[in-house]
Write a structure and sequence with these properties.
By secondary structure, this protein is mostly helical. It is 69% helix and 0% strand. It has one domain.
Length: 152
């Protein structure tokens, strides 16, 4: 590093300054981890129920369990990607939030309507979408994966 670069005020002098995450990204991470914990808990509950209780349809019970495990894996990858600041997580997280809002709206209406469940699904989903489009979170999640090497 040259002397001129050492005195450049544009370059951060603290090496951890470049790796600091904005506070709103931490809020986003907390919300996403909370969603992951809930979906993981639901998967654990479904697995225990599959082993302990007798379902009316084993194929349906296994299918719901597999879909819940896939959702947990999807959310887990979003959390890891968000922690690493990857750009692809914004689209994946918004898709998850749209699905979550759809389930929440379904919980607000119908024969077995439960407004509490609906609000617990809709409010965090809206918060996550708002956080994903804030400039500081967008800047913190702008890292792109390197292009694969060219082969001729």
């Amino acid at each position: 590093m040259s002397r001129a670069a050492e005195n450049d005020p544009a370059e951060p002098t603290d090496p951890s300054a470049a790796t600091r995450r904005p506070p709103l990204l931490w809020v986003l991470l907390v919300l996403l981890v909370g969603e992951l914990v809930v979906v993981g808990g639901a998967a654990a509950y479904l697995l225990i129920e599959l082993v302990v209780a007798t379902p009316s349809s084993y194929p349906s019970a296994v299918a719901v369990l597999v879909l819940t495990l896939m959702a947990a894996a999807w959310l887990g990858s979003i959390v890891v990607g968000a922690f690493r600041g990857r750009a692809w997580i914004r689209g994946a997280a918004i898709v998850w939030q749209v699905l979550q809002v759809a389930v929440g709206v379904g919980s607000l209406q119908g024969t077995f309507a439960n407004p509490t469940v609906g609000l617990w699904l809709i409010v965090p989903a809206v918060l996550v979408v708002v956080l994903l489009i804030t400039p500081s979170v967008t800047a913190a999640t702008a890292a792109r994966d390197e292009a694969p090497p060219r082969t001729y």
